[in-house]
């Protein structure tokens, strides 16, 4: 169910893999996508299984992800169009989805502020990560820690040279080369550079989605399959 799971003080967080759900092939098994041809019933059960294991009885807040830089305040039961989500509420799970894009989980446990970001190529270039950090600091965050989850690596994310130049002009750290020698982008490297400039401590919990059969990859598998990144600030004991 998880490719990575940990806690920092009252903060629990995890990145999922594709196992432990009920979706049939080719979506097998723990598909958390919002849209796509997979069974709605199967996806609902997958979400139920994840949440009952990660945070039993706790509601979750998520997004319609649009590859932009907007940041929403978490409200369970609503699904705003945004790519960053933050909260100071306890016992609310924040959920973002990905299948090659970079998931970023953020926390200041002492201040009681958490966030989650979906940072694809366009979102990284647009600055969704700095925008989310700014919103968290408005809520009182000071010393922040970031966890980067699985995403497609620079050796696998081939792009046209013109697109590489466009994105690298905004974030030079994202420039990369595929393992076969063609222009590519390393979105995770771009995100790490942004976090470094913001003074955020970063922990890498990622692997390449395209290279890892236990993870979903849009480039390898096509659309309609999503992993999840979840984070929660536990309530008082």
UniProtKB/TrEMBL annotation:
UniProt KW Metal-binding keyword: yes
SUPFAM superfamilies: CNF1/YfiH-like putative cysteine hydrolases
Catalytic reactions of this protein: adenosine + phosphate = alpha-D-ribose 1-phosphate + adenine; adenosine + H2O + H(+) = inosine + NH4(+); inosine + phosphate = alpha-D-ribose 1-phosphate + hypoxanthine; S-methyl-5'-thioadenosine + phosphate = 5-(methylsulfanyl)-alpha-D-ribose 1-phosphate + adenine
Pfam families for this protein: Cu-oxidase_4
InterPro entries for this protein: Cu_polyphenol_OxRdtase (IPR003730), Cu_polyphenol_OxRdtase_sf (IPR038371), Cytotoxic_necrot_fac-like_cat (IPR011324)
Superkingdom of the source species: Bacteria
Keywords of the record: Copper, Hydrolase, Metal-binding, Transferase, Zinc
TM annotation in the entry: none
Cross-referenced Gene3D superfamilies: CNF1/YfiH-like putative cysteine hydrolases (3.60.140.10)
PANTHER family: PURINE NUCLEOSIDE PHOSPHORYLASE LACC1, UNCHARACTERIZED PROTEIN YFIH
Protein name: Purine nucleoside phosphorylase
Record gene name: pgeF
